[in-house]
Amino acid sequence: MSKLGMPAVSVVIVNWNSRALLEQALTSLHETTNVPFETIVVDNGSQDGSVAYLREQWPDVLLVPLDTNHGFAAANNIGFDKCGGELILLLNVDTIAKPTMVSGLVEVMNEHPEAGCVGARHLNPDGSLQWSMDDFPSLLNDTLRYTDLIRLPALQGWLRRKYPAFTDHDTDREVGWVNGACMMVRRRVIEQVGGLDESFFMYAEELDWCCRMWEAGWTVRFTPRAELIHLLGGSFSATDGKRTILLYQSLRRYYRKHYSKAKYFAISAMVGLNAAWRLSAVAAMHAAAMHGCRPTQRLWELVTQQHARSPWRVMYRTWWKVIWVTPDDLVRT
Questions:
Q1: pLDDT of residue 2
Q2: d(Cα 202, Cα 6) in Å, to the nearest integer?
């Protein structure tokens, strides 16, 4: 809760079966933040003792327990209704705040009254840079990204010149969108454009939100003055494939909502072809493994887009679903 009564910032954290991550996120947030703030945790029907832990260890945190998993967007919207601050910070549960995180975002919001939203510089646990912002999606950009052609050394210079995501993230600037793991939004923006679109169960909801802010006359900014560590997908199982399915499903949903039918069908074709070759490559790796040739970790990551190993049947099911899942299908988590 605020240190001086009325909070300057309301921090909303959505939790789902992530008690250990939640403890880490809350501890780092409260140890590093030096502006008045309150914390709201919306629990998405956790079954791991998160609610009891919060009630016992964090009595000053406003807990909003839900019976079931409403998804990231819907849970945040519920949290927004509980906020008392004029600035609202969406913070993922799999984050570790650094001392500049909240104060840096507040500073930029005060300097730029035209900005409806500002995002922070995200770092991996080893301190390396994580994509934190970019221009809005395009067929070229997304094709290169999702097919992993962005790995080609010959493209690196061109990518850095063309897309903000490939820069060093060392400059304050206007951008199309910022990473939703840590983004600060004005209360007035939420009142004007609405909250997150709940049809995005997870992923791409921040793209859609930033797009609506621009359409309403606000700008979106990125600043390296605010930093945090983002653990990436910590609330998901690393080996069940659901994250991958939701990622591609949300990409298609975003294109259907904001772009022409031709672009939507084009991105859907790219997703299908990309998944098909990965499915074929998984089958080839499986066949090789049956003969004693276990794929290297590098090859596994390149083909499956996962760091952790999954059972072969999970990888078959994952990429098959990526091919056939529609933007409106329910992907159970």
A1: 40
A2: 31
How big is the chain, counted in residues?
Answer: 333
pLDDT at 7: 81
User: 159: burial class by Cβ within 10 Å (0-12, 13-18, 19+)?
Assistant: middle
The string of pLDDT tens digits covering residues 236-260 is 555 568 889 999 999 999 999 999 9
Integer-rounded Cα Rg, in Å, for the chain is: 20
Under 8 Å between Cβ of 207 and 269: no
Q: Are 102 and 226 in contact (CB under 8 A)?
A: yes
> Contact at 8 Å (CB) between 37 and 62?
no
pTM higher than 0.85: yes
- Enclosing H/E stretch for 76: helix 72-80
What are the residues facing 123 on neighbouring strands? Answer: 129, 229
Tell me: the pLDDT tens digits for 161-216? 999 999 999 999 999 999 999 999 999 999 999 999 998 877 899 999 999 999 99
